[in-house]
Amino acid sequence: MAVSQNTFARATGAVAVATAASRATGFVRTLALAAVLGTAAVGDAYNGANSMPNMVYELLLGGVMSSVLIPVLARARLRGRTYSRVFTQRLLLAAVLGAAVVTAIAVACAPLLVAVLVSDAEQSQLATVLAYLLLPEIFFYAIAATVTAVLNVRESYAPAAWASVGNNLIVLATVGVFAAVPGPVTLLPSTMTTAQVLVLGFGTTIGIVGQAVWTVAALRRTGFRWSWRVRPVPYTWRPIRAGTRLLGWVLLYVAISQVGVAVVLRVAFSYGGVSTYTYADLLFQVPYGILGVSLLTVLMPRISRAVALGDRDALVADMGRAARYSVLALVPAAVAMTLLGPMLTTVMFVGRVDVDAARTIGVALALSAFGLPPFALVMLQLRVFYAGNDMRTPALINAAMVATKIAVIALGVACLPDQAVVVMLPVASSLSYVVGAVSGHLVLRHRYGLLGFHTVRETFSRVLWASIAAGVVCVIAVGVMHQLIDNPRAAAAATLAAVLVLGAPTFLITAQKIGIPEVRNAKALLNR
Q: What's the average model confidence in pLDDT over 68-78?
């Protein structure tokens, strides 16, 4: 299916705007939570408990949904409008029933989940209460994910991308209420009041409820009407049977992933670094979330159709396009985070957390930034495998990635001082992305032949040189500002301002002089 460069860019741009708004409000939410909870025991308990719905969802539902839904829905759509509509109705009902069962089991097992990750008694007690309040999010995550898949297959991308903005705004309101609730002067797991815990837990969960409601409303605006009159048995289970033969590999994939997550969280809790790791990882995800997620949102239905139709040329073209645009956005972002990570987090977090904690987050971000482009490639490669109903290869690649991560963590725990162990956790993840990207590329090249990645290498080389030119400006700005300004936070803020004023234009001018087609295409589109 031929799609023009401008059409692709416009669709991706619409999602990128929504995703940028989501990331911006999510960033403000992160700062607000850090301000009221800190990065010590209470912040770690909240961030750890808030990761549990994601862990259980990914383990029991998320992997199945992200792997199977869009390819299956795309194939159903090729069989005609009537078949697609009925199939989608059955799939939605199956998702509701399955999510309800999984959520009930997860809530019942909340104390066991906390016991696996947290050893401190007071922290464990707070995390358990929060887990009871937060685990119901699983149900609404599943609804939002299923409806988003339906929207994407119906070529509606941006509305679902705006859903998380509502979630972030609700959590920001929750933080405001939390700050207004009377509580202790020193916030500790043992001193938090019942009202504070309830506000924090219920408010965070209501944010996910709002996200799910938004996506359902967006689906209704497309003209689709969700029918509950579909017979549950046996017809509702046909969508599940369509992926039954793939389910084992999918579950193996997500189980392996969650082993890696559990190891990271266990080590982070043991060394008091859950909040440090969480905030560094959130910042790491921002550049990918703005462009990478946008690219995959637009490309996944098209890749699924190309694979279903056996259109290798379209598949290779979309893969190359996504890889080139990812390189264009993420290589300069990675260079910037490497050079400016500690200054960035000093400006963001000092005043909300102490200076040392803020700089530790920045060091973790800087040292792990090299993994950003490989991470984007891994996400792209996995979608290609999923589109071809190949769940075995992602599971095996993921096993290599998680093994790499655990090996690096074990080496760090054995050889590094305590503070360095916390910093090393995101570095271990980035190294695993490198292993995954190389493995995935080799498999795809063996399967599809030459992928045209020589153009990706050319783009990478040119973008890297442009990023280095901008990086030189950044280094000069750092030196000058620290000579002129004694206050560390003021110097960091002035440096970031100088980088925005000088570094970004330097990159764009250098990129244009070197000749990067993707920059020219983006500029031409903006001038329309």
A: 69
Higher pLDDT, 311 or 268: 268
Residue 40's identity, in one-letter code, is A
Q: How is residue 489 written in tokens?
A: 């936070």
Please tell me which residue, 250 or 278, carries the higher pLDDT value: 278
DSSP structural state of residue 489: H
- pLDDT over 80 at 232, yes or no: no
Question: What tokens were used for 118?
Answer: 């947290």
From 327, 459, 310, 455, select the one nearest 380 (Cα to Cα). 327
Average pLDDT over residues 465-488: 77
Give the whole-number percent of the chain exceeding pLDDT 90.
14
> CA–CA separation, 368 vs 433, rounded Å?
11
How far are the Cα atoms of 48, 109, 126 from residue 129, in angstroms, in the given order? 12, 12, 5
Q: How far is CA 359 from CA 11, 272, 331, 367, 378, in A?
A: 38, 15, 23, 12, 29
Asked whether the bond before 517 is cis by omega within 30 degrees of 0, the reply is no
Contact 147, 225 (CB under 8 A): no
Please list, residue by residue across 83-97, b when 16 or more beta carbons sit within 10 angstroms of its beta carbon and e when fewer do.
ebeebbbbbbbbbbe
Residue type, 521: N
| Residue 463: strand, helix, or coil | helix
pTM: 0.72
Q: How far apart are CA 140 and CA 127, in angstroms?
A: 21
pLDDT tens-digit series, residues 92-124 = 887 788 788 888 888 888 888 888 777 777 788
Going by the DSSP 8-state scheme, the letter that residue 310 receives in this structure is T
CA distances in angstroms from 270 to 86, 120, 412, listed in the order given: 50, 9, 14
pLDDT at 197 over 80: yes
Q: Locate 139 and state its tokens.
A: 């149900």
Whose CA is closest to 211, among 171, 173, 175, 174?
171
Q: How far apart are CA 458 and CA 463, in angstroms?
A: 9
φ, ψ of residue 57 to 5 degrees: the values are: -60, -50
The sign one gets for the Cα dihedral 313, 318, 321, 326 is negative
